[in-house]
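Reminder to self: tokens first, then the designed residues, so the page reads top to bottom the way the pipeline ran.
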């Protein structure tokens, strides 16, 4: 983004004038997390019970989907949620999708995409991947959706829970740098793999990327 939002310590943004529309912008993260964990398990069990995939094939495609999601997570966060704000329309879209979260990072009701939008996106994802991968899509989409569930869970806890004093604290440290120091680094939330690959992983102490 070429606009830095000053994070508010408390409060919640009213996105639409009509209360009826506001409802569709909010959800508790545990709802989509539970939904996509269950969907991933269902697809895996279904594929095995119907002999669509062998156990080995399921494992390979599942973890391929999980890895693929971490890449999509990084790319969407970096290039869609933090798109260059060259037009008024881009500014409005970016603010609705992500800017409001940067302005009110402690708003627990807007840490995840609302269920209706999430379900529609999941159905579309499965349909498109199924066209390309055929029977392999069951394992791949199961891993992909479980990766999304993991992302939502991690995103929720780094905003809602106190930072632990163990190896997991890096999740909090990097995401706090992204929100409160430099929004152009640390785009990975559930994984920092692609930040390392593309050079956007900041130093934990300084918040700056290594040259």
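Designed residues (211 positions):
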């Amino acid at each position: 983004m070429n606009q830095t939002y000053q994070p508010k310590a408390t409060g919640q943004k009213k996105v639409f004038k009509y209360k009826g529309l506001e409802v569709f912008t909010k959800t508790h993260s545990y709802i989509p997390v539970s939904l996509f964990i269950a969907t991933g398990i269902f697809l895996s069990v279904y594929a095995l019970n119907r002999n669509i995939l062998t156990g080995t094939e399921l494992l390979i495609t599942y973890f391929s989907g999980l890895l693929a999601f971490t890449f999509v997570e990084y790319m969407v966060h970096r290039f869609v949620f933090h798109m260059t704000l060259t037009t008024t329309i881009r500014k409005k879209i970016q603010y609705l999708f992500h800017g409001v979260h940067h302005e009110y990072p402690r708003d627990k009701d807007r840490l995840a995409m609302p269920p209706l939008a999430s379900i529609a996106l999941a159905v579309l994802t499965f349909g498109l991947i199924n066209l390309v991968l055929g029977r392999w899509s069951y394992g791949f989409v199961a891993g992909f959706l479980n990766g999304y569930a993991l992302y939502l869970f991690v995103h929720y806890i780094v905003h809602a829970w106190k930072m632990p004093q163990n190896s997991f604290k890096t999740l909090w440290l990097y995401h706090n740098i992204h929100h409160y120091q430099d929004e152009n680094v640390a785009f990975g939330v559930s994984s920092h793999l692609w930040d390392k690959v593309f050079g956007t992983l900041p130093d934990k102490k300084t918040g700056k990327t290594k040259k």
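The chain has a mean pLDDT of 87.
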